[in-house]
Amino acid sequence: MNNIIWVKIDNGNYYYLLTKLNDIGITLYDNKKFKDYLLIKVSLKDYERIQKYLVSYNTSIYDLTGFNKIKIYMKKYIIFLLASIISIFILFLANNIIFKIDIKTNNYDIQNLVLEALKNNGIKTLSLKMPHNKIEKIVANILDKNKDTLEWLEIEYDGLIMNVYVTEKNIPKEEDNYNYCHIVAKTDAKISNMNIYRGVALKEINDYVNKGDIILSGDISFNNEVKNQVCAQGEIYGEVWYKVKVTVPFNEYYIEYTGKKRYNFNVKINDDKYYILRSRIKNKKLEETNLYKLNDFEINFVKEKEYVNKIRKLTEEQAYDKAFNLAIEKIKLQLDENEDILVKKVLKKEVNDSTIYLEVFIVAKENIGEIKVIEEELNNDANNSQNSI
Amino acid sequence: MKNLHFSEYFKDFLYDLNDFITIYENNLHVFNYTKLNKLSADEIVITINNKKILIKGNNLKIKQMTKQELLINGLILKVEFIYDE
After folding, report:
1. Which residues of chain A are in CATH 3.30.70.260 domains?
2. Residues of each domain in chain A carrying CATH 3.10.20.310
3. What range defines the domain where residue B34 resides?
4. Which residue among A9, A77, A155, A173 is least enclosed by CB atoms within 10 Å?
């Protein structure tokens, strides 16, 4: 590669100088004439010749071209270049390394099983992320090897975290394996509905039962003689009565937003939060938006909304409605989706200066059956059978 | 290894002449000159194949220069042979 450079020659007669250059056999690629100096484009080798033969002229390298120029720039900006390369490398690592494997299951054994299986397939913390098709193969391989334990497995990346969603195989519940059990009432109620899968019903629909009464028996009898003992199974729904007492004050406290907002940032390390700016709002509600997260380190954008505490006076009607709804909510909280409130009625109402007191009668349809496992009788039977042998 | 000088062969093939002068726009291209005898803003004298050639013009400048070729830039007025008496 020719090292072509621009050479500056001071205070020379243009025509005389060019004749001189021609005499010493210099190859001139370009030249620019200025008032006080002349720029000539020559090779580095020719520049050495100029320095040797034209000693009376003041010459210096003005600029470099091609690779030499790049080399000079690289020397000048070496720190910036190195920092850029290292930053790109770190960014590449940060985007392609798994910092945490989060297995979405509460079962500790399954967590260990999946972690071990992933490790055997080359996936562990601080390893490189794998492409989608390879992940699919690994998932299929793990599911195939653990078909008795795992039903479904899915892997997806969330930034630096690898989320592993696991569904374990549905193993029959333990109570299904009981040999002998009854279904008894867990509370006083009136039976409204029965779905019997196994066992003998000792009560009928519309019967009243007390807590602990056997509703479905595990004894299979014939002619008043117990022929077999099973674990009774079924769903028993009944009407359960509640008397709920609620007191509501006429003064209701609430918060009102003033519309004033401030923006801030916080850094969260483990459970400690450090705010970047000092907050000037006394009563505020914070809304955080996560900007960056790496394991237990977080940077959040925080919106602070100012509010003031206020009091309003409820009318008797408003306080009554609030107390009535509170009573219903109280019962609803303990009901499942198949259960419901059938009757709600106010039994007593007392209005004082500052409060209202309600007694509400509520009838709810609930699952009132619970399994009662009988172990002693089984043992007795076993002893009897041994004696008879 | 023997140097084949492909570029030189190619140039000879294209030009097919030992020396020549080409004029286009404000440029004058001299190929295979022997010597640059005189150089000024109005006059340039060069020797080609033992013949002196005078180039007259205004604001003449050497744009590019090698041992064989010259590229002269400026307002070219006249190109003529000089015969020594």
Report:
1. 4-74
2. 96-168
3. 19-82
4. A173
Residue B65 lies inside a defined structural domain of this protein: yes
Q: Is residue B42 part of a domain?
A: yes
Residues sharing a CB contact under 8 Å with residue A189, sequence separation 6 or more, in sequence order: A208, A209, A238, A239, A240, A241, A366, A368
Q: Which amino acid, A227?
A: K
**B64 CA to chain A: closest CA distance, Å?**
5
Q: How many domains does chain B have?
A: 1
Neighbours of A97 (CB within 10 A): 13
d(CA A20, CA A50): 10
- Structurally, at CATH architecture level, domain A96-168 sits in Roll (3.10)
Asked whether the beta carbons of A253 and A311 are under 8 A apart, the reply is: yes
Q: Which residues of B touch A19 (CB under 8 A)?
A: 36, 38-39
CATH code where residue B41 lies: 2.60.40.2000
- HSE, side-chain direction, 13 A CA sphere, residue A266: 18
Task: Provide the number of CB pairs (under 8 Å) joining chain A to chain B.
Answer: 31
The token duo for A307 is: 């509010």
* Other CB atoms within 10 Å distance of the CB of residue A365: 19
Q: A33-68: per-residue pLDDT in tens? A: 888 899 999 998 999 999 999 888 899 988 888 887
Query: Residue A261: what are its φ and ψ, rounded to 5°?
Result: -130, 150
Q: A15: which chain B residues are within 8 Å (Cβ-Cβ)? A: 39-41
3-class DSSP state of B39: strand
| Per-position pLDDT tens, chain B of length 85 | 445 667 767 766 666 667 889 999 899 999 989 999 999 999 999 999 889 999 999 999 999 999 999 999 999 999 999 987 6
8 A C-beta contact, residue A4 and residue A46 = no
Domain A4-74: state its class: alpha beta
Best B42, B64, B65 member to test A by mutation, with max A CBs in 10 Å, is B65
